[in-house]
Every structure is written in structure tokens, then in C-alpha cells.
Design goal:
There is one protein chain. This protein is α+β, with helices and mostly antiparallel strands. The chain folds into two domains: 131 residues, 2,3-Dihydroxybiphenyl 1,2-Dioxygenase, domain 1, CATH 3.10.180.10; 114 residues, Roll (2,3-Dihydroxybiphenyl 1,2-Dioxygenase, domain 1), CATH 3.10.180.10. Helices cover 16% and strands 42% of the residues. The chain contains four helices and 16 strands. The strands form two sheets. The chain has an eight-stranded mixed sheet with strand order 2-3-4-1-5-8-7-6, with helices on one face. An eight-stranded mixed sheet has the order 10-11-12-9-13-16-15-14, with helices on one face. The two termini are 15 Å apart. The N terminus is likely disordered. Pfam families: Glyoxalase_6. InterPro entries: Anthracycline_SecMetBiosynth (IPR052164), Glyas_Bleomycin-R_OHBP_Dase (IPR029068), Glyoxalase_6 (IPR041581), VOC_core (IPR037523). This is VOC domain-containing protein.
Amino acid sequence: MTEAREPAGPHARRLPGTPCWVSLMVHGLDATEEFYGELFGWEFRPGPQQLGPYVRALLDGREVAGVGRLPTGRRLPVAWTPYLASDDADRTADTVRLCGGTVAVGPLDAAEAGRMAIAADPSGAVFGIWQGSAHPGAALTGVPGAPVWNELLTFETESVTKFYKSVFPYEEEPVVSAGDDCLTLRLDGRPVAGLHGVGHGLPPDRGPHWRTYFEVADLDATLRRVAALGGRVLAPAHDGPHGRVATVADPEGAEFSVVQGPR
């Protein structure tokens, strides 16, 4: 996780498979902007509208995430979704299908920003595919108020790792942890994402899913702010190998983790 804290250049090319963007689809766009604006200090400006109303979140004038409105009448989960970089979204989508995954949306053009698709691995965990053009991805990561890490929570890592390594040029590194089924995905020697097999510990109403971690400067203050803004603390703060971590949900139920790195 620590190497994911480096700020990303606004036009830096992401290696295929690199988490390069996170996006949230919600019912109440205005209320969601208010929540995250107060929580992380984000400001918002319009983004591509191909899938409906959509805004990009900015931190200190630099893009860090996207928020869109769910289509009316569709019962889709409210969840943060990471987008994985691709040099060719159409070819990546074809590979996803060939390897047992599914493609639910696209590939399609997002105006001049790039080309995207929304897919799921064989266990059902949803992720995005992003072929950046004018918009290569997040311009800032790993600082307070910005994404710092993405982790897949799944039944077990062995089979799903084969899928992701077939779609992207990942290397895997087991995480030495007694009794835990964890590994890190690397690209060019650099850690970019984690996989965590939790067996039957997955919520029955969620199933396997990706979770985004956001850096914060003061975890305790952040948790108080989440509650004051109408969110919930799902897992209280605890010490981990990369700092103090807690899991929370926004007022619509979208789950994410917040982490305060070692001082």
C-alpha cells in the first residue's frame, strides 16, 4: 500500500492493470456531493454524461474521483468501483469474457476523456476498465482526501487471481499473515492492489466486491465527521501494517475504508 501513496502526474501513463480511477453511482447526487465535500474537502465539476449525470471530484483543483447518478428505476448497488487502466478497452473487455468474467456496460466512449467498460470477475466483483485519452485518471492519490489503495474482498484468492493475471500483467506476492488468505498484485515490481479471501465472512447481500481506501490526516476526527454527516462506522479503527484503518458507509450505504498512515 505504501507505494500507492505517490502523487500521480496529470498526464502520466498508467501500466495496464493499474487502478487509475474510482467512481461512485448514487441515487441522490446533490446530497452525495455535500457529504463527500464536507468529509474530504472535495469540490465538483461536470464530467462526461454518457451514462447520465456525472461529476468529477477535485481536491486542491486536481481530479481524484467521480460520482454519478444511477438510472431511475434500476435497483443497482450503491458502491465505489475502481477502474483498471487499459491500453485497449475493447481488447481487455474481450479478454474478460474469454476468462470467465462478464461485461455489463460498454466498451463505449466517454466523450474525449477516454473509453470505458464496466465488468465483473467470475465471482461477481465489479470493476471498471479505463482507456484514458484526454483524462488518463486520477491526478492525485495517496494524500489526505484522495484514494490510496484498492482491495478485492472475495471468497478465496487462488481462482480469482488466475483471472486477473490472465487479463492484466500482474505479478502476485503472498502476504505473510497467519491464517489469512491475502496477496498483493504488483506491476513492474510495484504493489497496486490487494486480494483478500474471507470465505463465508462476506455479507450475503454483497458478495465479492472491491473496496477503496481513502487517506485521511486524522482518523478519529474523520469517523466523528462521518457520523455527523449521516454516515455509519461499520468497523471501528484498528491498527494495521500501514496505519490505523476503519471501514465506513456514506448515507446511501456505499462502503469504503479510511486510513491514517504512520506518523
